[in-house]
Amino acid sequence: MSNCLFCKIIAGEIPSSKVYEDDQIFVFKDINPKAAVHLLVVPKTHIKSLDELSDEHQTLIAYMMLELADLARSQGLDDGFRTIINTGAGGGQEVAHLHIHILGGKDLPGFN
Ligand code: AMP
Ligand code: ZN
Known about the structure:
By secondary structure, this protein is an alpha+beta fold. It contains two helices and five strands, in the order H-E-E-E-H-E-E.
């Protein structure tokens, strides 16, 4: 998607603090962190949100889930972490490219 912020980050057209990259996902630090550790896990293929998933994405989504704990641990989150996926305007999604937030460490805000 030519006008997508996260596609531009993945392509290296906009700088980011990259933590990890492979053929399927790109992981970087949130520019406005809500906790000591705040990562965004993004599929390299442009998918708008959970609302746009279809059967063809099963392997990719499973892969993203399977990577989360290792990514959190790589940032020192040895005793756990929080994941958030915002979907659509009603879910507070600001960037229309599917992403999983990983949050943890000092200053993790309350959820309620
Ligand atoms: P969401 O509200 O779930 O769509 O989350 C979008 C997230 O992207 C927010 O937490 C923003 O702080 C973050 N964000 C926006 N622009 C950038 C950027 N250029 N680099 C890193 N994170 C960003
Ligand atoms: Zn995109």
